[in-house]
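Hi R.,

Here's the chain you asked about this morning:
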Amino acid sequence: MALTEDTLEQPRARLRKSERREQILMELRLHSHIRISDIAERFGVSSETVRRDLDKLSKDGLINRAHGVASAASRHYPDFNERSLARLGEREAIGRHAASLVEPGETILIDSGSTTVELARFLAYNNTPCTAITNSLTVAMTLGASEAAEVILCPGDYLPSEAAVVGTDTLEFIDRMRVDRCLIGASALTEEGVSETVRGFAAVKRAMLRSAGTSHLLVDSEKFGRVGMTRVARLDEINSVVVDRTPDTGLEEAMSAAGVEILVAA
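And here is the predicted structure, written out as tokens:
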């Protein structure tokens, strides 16, 4: 429902915080931006309450903030299907190597991405006994084909272009977990760290890193030197990086200084 004068004149019952934030996200699916003053009037709350809502949604990577307004998080990045068709050989090699890092019986977190789907495929092919928690429907279906794996799908707001869930429910669910290792992808990797472009994904990756004893970044060399929209982690917050080739000198030296193990997939 648009923020029209007719809408604003209609009395509304006070919504819970989670319901109010969901309504804000729904509004931004229909309109390019919304004003804080309009949201406050619509929901019968203070502007400060709305600002806290927007701060949380922005931190989760679901919206962009500007002075007095909020807008939908932009995404100038190929969607999941497009990425799945690119650099398949490199991603297969990375996925195969990453699958070999998972010990039988481990609990793992896997995020959404074209490379992590290859990881799931090789875990299923190897019949690796594990419990996998993921925000990706594609990862869940791929790994779920294995009788040896138990797959747990996170709750959250569905992103059709990524076949994945994101948002507050996803983050709270992951934060309750404690697992042996997480295996995540990313849009970009530089000496400054790991970053992400798809809306909501950076917050999910950060939550997975917090919940895992050991962390692995799966990234092909095309991402070297790129910078994503939202920062995920510093290099020293990652235990190892699984890549298809050794990074250039500057990035390799930065990883070494940060104590990151570089695993080149054969």
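One quick note: Residues 1-11 have pLDDT under 50 and may be disordered.

Cheers,
M.
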